[in-house]
From TrEMBL:
Binds 1 Ca(2+) ion per subunit. Pfam families: Transglut_C, Transglut_core, Transglut_N. This is protein-glutamine gamma-glutamyltransferase. Residues 1-41 are annotated as: Disordered.
């Protein structure tokens, strides 16, 4: 799509006739509780309440250096309100008009979320500090000094996640006298990976630090043998992001009562991050025309996207899979669900469940582009989130695959997961949610069919190792990649892999039962690094694994492709005739000129080469594929001086146009967690071999190491980015 989907107002469906109250599905809505709530009929005039406790002050102890945020690992949130995690005690300090006497004074704290709160639904939570009165949340008096009482409150491990309104109330014979609504006393309750009773509990401290607290990350892209690492600012603790994440659930009309279940939250959000069904966060666009929004390659992080969505109440344009995954990652980490972005290289899009991608060649071995409809994404990004799965048999909890990129519908909506990674690996694709689709993304076969003059198709060759070549995520505590391939599948041609395939087929994912002939001649396109604008040689290696002479008539085709595998323009077509002696290996080079591809490039600068052919001695088909990602020039980022907290610091961004043509309408973005709000700069033109210089200032908000990220983007040059580590002194 090239422009945002049209907005149409949703018709409100009435709850009348079905229930006495509507389903609460907005964290932002809710009635203020009355300051005095009488018990039954009252005599005329104000009730005599002077002898009872009067509440002078309620201190939420919400400063970053106070124990609440420190102990709950929420001190990084740029939010003045109290942010705590469930299943762990937090403190509130109450000042009364006189000393508290437990023998005659009774008070309670009330936590309320959404409209029409009810105790039975967990949306109205009364907490009594009396140990004898147990409720959904626990409360106890920690200390009482003069007229100041400190109360400890522990939210239930399955508590609703969101922003609660807080009241302190005193019980009298005449009724309840409570504090008036004060927004500064609202408290955010999050999931708690540090609490063993919480379904998202993650035992390893290093993993919690990476998958919950780490604000910046790496999204891998490119090609399996030439991986590129794109920095991304998740920014889950930046000002306004937490409220934006709650708004995402409100906009999706997710019932408040479901927001304590990480399975339901992850599944609902996988639909709400894309705009296909419910006016979600991001509009997808793979067309190359981003005139009505921001190019997916231009974003530096999630903060600008989420803040814009919450402020405008409109989907943000534009996104592709890595943007969806990165923003979803921010959402999950912000709410306290451990999460990471993963990249699957050569990812199949199997919408019919047959676990194969079909490539059709003619009698000579040349690819039939008209009849070949299937494509394989060079890479595809999704997320994993960590949680128990009480709805599945034991052993299928842990990491769950979720995907917010709108590819196929699931139960009527564009969403995917959460699907147990363990279930995918072991072929238990009968378990919810959407395990068959993800299983196919990493396990499909590439089948080459030979088409004769009558139109008949005959399976000629299969490549079982091309799809799901490698699955990567960022390593804990570093910027290097960590491979997850063995978490999704067993090695090819092992006993375990055959057992899993049989199990998956038993659940309905049937591969065609064909005996594919194994050729004794093989060809490989060798990997290499190529910079954009360079002429280069494509190296092909032919191997004869037989004791006889072999003659191969081969076709080399090269196309500019989108990263989704969809072809754009042809850049190379050449025929070869290679003769091999028994057991011989021969390397052949094919020239590729920049003038043939530069004018046809699309945003990811990918060239897809395919070698197909036929062996004259018999009917064997040979084939090989390789995606070559053209490397783009780098930016230069220099931080001037020693950055200190609350002191202005200068940064300089420099770039030189390496081409013999101008770069027009160049967009730059700069971002960094704890350093600045996202900043933007536009240059109308950069002449050939001309320089670009962008001086900018920022004022760090906190000490410690962090990262500053910059992207450069224009129609003629995408995927230009860099980052620099910034050590901020106190």
């Amino acid at each position: 799509m090239s422009q945002p989907e049209s907005e149409s107002p949703k018709k409100k469906v009435s709850f009348r006739g079905r229930s006495n109250v509507p389903v609460a599905n907005s964290n932002a809505e809710g009635e203020d509780a009355p300051e005095f709530e009488p018990f039954g009929l009252m005599p005329r005039g104000p009730p005599p309440l002077a002898e009872f406790l009067d509440i002078w002050d309620v201190n939420m102890l919400c400063k970053p250096n106070e124990s609440n945020k420190k102990e709950h690992h929420t001190s990084l949130f740029s939010n003045p309100l109290l942010v705590v995690r469930r299943a762990q005690e937090f403190q509130i300090r109450i000042t009364f008009n006189r000393a508290y006497d437990p023998s005659k004074d009774q008070f309670l704290l009330e936590f309320v979320i959404g409209a029409s709160p009810q105790m039975s639904k967990g949306t109205y939570i009364p907490v009594f500090p009396d140990p004898g009165r147990r409720g959904l949340w626990r409360g106890r008096i920690l200390d009482s000094i003069d007229n100041m009482v400190t109360v400890g409150i522990t939210a239930a491990p399955d508590s609703i996640v969101g922003k609660f309104r807080t009241y302190v109330a005193v019980l009298t014979p005449y009724g309840i006298r409570r504090t008036r609504r004060e927004p500064k006393r609202d408290v955010y309750i999050l999931f708690n990976p540090w609490a063993s009773d919480d379904p998202v509990f993650l035992k390893d401290e290093a993993e919690r630090g990476e998958y919950v607290l780490e604000e910046s990350g790496i999204v891998y892209h490119g090609e399996a043998s030439d991986v590129s690492a794109r920095p991304w600012n998740f920014g889950q603790f930046e000002y306004g992001v937490l409220d934006a994440c709650l708004y995402v659930m409100d906009r999706a009309e997710m019932p408040i009562t479901n927001r304590g279940d990480p399975i339901k939250v992850a599944r609902k959000a996988s639909a709400a991050i894309n705009s296909k069904d419910d006016d979600g966060v991001l509009v997808g666009n793979w067309s190359g025309d981003y005139s009505y929004g921001v190019a997916p390659t231009s974003w530096t992080g999630s903060v600008e996207i989420l803040i814009t969505y919450a402020a405008t109440k409109q989907p943000v344009a534009y996104a592709q899979c890595w943007v969806y995954a990165a923003v979803f990652n921010t959402f999950l980490r912000c709410l306290g669900i451990p999460a990471r972005v993963v990249t699957n290289f050569y990812s199949a899009h199997d919408n019919d469940g047959n676990l194969k991608t079909d490539i059709i060649v003619d009698e000579e071995g040349k690819v039939d582009r008209v009849r070949t409809k299937d494509s394989i994404w060079n890479y595809h990004c999704w997320n994993e989130c960590y949680m128990t799965r009480p709805d599945l048999p034991q052993g299928f909890g842990g990491w769950q695959a979720v995907d917010s990129t709108p590819q196929e519908t699931s139960d009527g909506l564009y969403r995917c997961g959460p699907a147990s990674v363990q279930a995918i690996k072991h072929g238990h694709i009968c378990y919810p949610f959407d395990a068959p689709f993800i299983y196919a993304e990493v396990n499909s076969d590439v089948v080459f069919y030979k088409r004769d003059k009558s139109g008949n198709l005959e399976a000629a060759r299969v490549n079982r190792s091309h799809v799901g070549r490698m699955v990567l995520t960022k390593a804990i505590g570093g910027d290097q990649p960590f491979e997850l391939t063995n978490q999704y599948k067993f090695a090819e041609d092992t006993e375990e892999e055959r057992t899993v395939s049989a199990k998956a087929e038993g659940y309905g994912m049937d591969r065609p039962k064909v005996n594919y002939p194994e050729p004794d001649v093989k060809v490989e396109v060798l990997a290499q690094e190529v910079s954009i604008g360079d002429d280069f040689q494509l190296d092909l290696e032919f191997k004869n694994h037989s004791g006889e002479h072999r003659t191969i008539n081969a076709f080399v085709t090269g196309y500019v492709v989108y990263y989704t595998g969809v072809t754009s323009g042809e850049v190379k077509y050449e025929t070869l005739k290679v003769t091999l002696d028994p057991w011989q290996t021969e390397r052949v080079s094919v020239d590729v000129h920049s003038k043939d591809y530069m004018s046809k490039l699309v945003e990811q600068s990918n060239l897809h080469f395919m070698v197909t052919g036929r062996v004259e001695e018999g009917s064997q088909i040979v084939s090989a594929m390789r995606v070559i990602t053209l490397h783009v020039p780098k930016l230069s980022i220099k931080v001037i001086g020693d950055p200190r907290v609350n002191e202005e610091t200068l940064v300089s961004v420099e770039f030189t146009n390496p081409f013999q043509f101008s770069l027009d309408s160049v967009h730059l973005r700069m971002d960094g967690p704890g350093l600045m709000t996202p900043k933007y700069k536009h240059f109308s033109v950069i002449p050939p071999n001309g320089p670009l210089h962008w001086p900018e200032s920022f004022t760090p908000r906190r000490a410690g190491p962090t990262k500053l990220m910059v992207t450069l983007d224009c129609l003629a040059l995408r995927q230009v980015y860099d980052q620099v580590v910034v050590n901020v002194k106190p």
